[in-house]
Design goal:
By secondary structure, this protein is α/β, with parallel strands linked by helices. About 45% of the residues lie in helices and about 15% in strands.
Length: about 250
Amino acid sequence: MELDGKVAVVTGAARGLGRAIAQRLAAEGAAVSLWDLDGAGVRQAAEAITASGGTAIAVTANAAEPGAIAAAAEETRQRLGRVAILVNNAARSPFVRFEELTETTWDELMAVNLKGPFLCCKALLPGMLAAGWGRIVNISSSSAQTGSAAQTHYAASKAGVVGFTKSLAMEYATRGITVNAVAPGFVDTEGLREAPVDIAGFAPKTPMQRPGKPENIAAAVAYLASLAADYVTGQTLGVNGGRYCN
Ligand SMILES: NC(=O)c1ccc[n+]([C@@H]2O[C@H](COP(=O)([O-])OP(=O)(O)OC[C@H]3O[C@@H](n4cnc5c(N)ncnc54)[C@H](O)[C@@H]3O)[C@@H](O)[C@H]2O)c1
């Protein structure tokens, strides 16, 4: 299979998009290390992959905390081998009106959504460079492209992810590493259902008139992680039913 012999890390993999991405990469042959704050959830997600014949381990880790990332990276290396693919998916996406948004809330969100991908790349990029091959896929959001009321911190963090992606891609373009982003539109996940979002009201405003499925995002990530995407770097692939057109 396409990703046989490759080790992948997916952050925020206990549920939603991260879980679907981990499932898809495992189906492509990768050995997947699923990281999440939610220990029980991530164990269940990894067990579902192994039950269907894939290779997966669960690591309980805060993907925004340097010590936890270092420990998770080491555990992954010891149990599966050198990491070739990193998917920075873990994020928080709360709605807070700007007047109620505090500096603490801003900093807490940035620590997960923007500093988290930075820290995970710091931990795992050296191994990719040593191997001369790596794939980094960062999950942004169509909210970074369109704006999102009551989500100034979230949209800013996800726009930051795009700038981070482009810059890292340019820096390592000659070293066998590609760095790309996927920007989902509305995708039906637990996270979206918990948000104060009128999913039914949104649908008619989207060209495809329906929310996306986690598998749609997983397919985009699988492409960007593939050997076929060898000449694709620094890009942001919108998977959004036409909600935002580049
Ligand atoms: N669902 C959508 O409509 C949508 C749209 C645009 C972008 N996105 C992005 O896609 C990604 C996944 O979204 P989702 O809807 O699946 O979210 P979700 O809330 O359903 O799942 C997020 C997962 O990340 C984990 N997590 C959160 N903070 C963490 C941390 N610090 N360390 C480790 N794990 C952590 C949670 O425990 C959870 O399992 C996020 O980056 C989100 O911003 C989602």
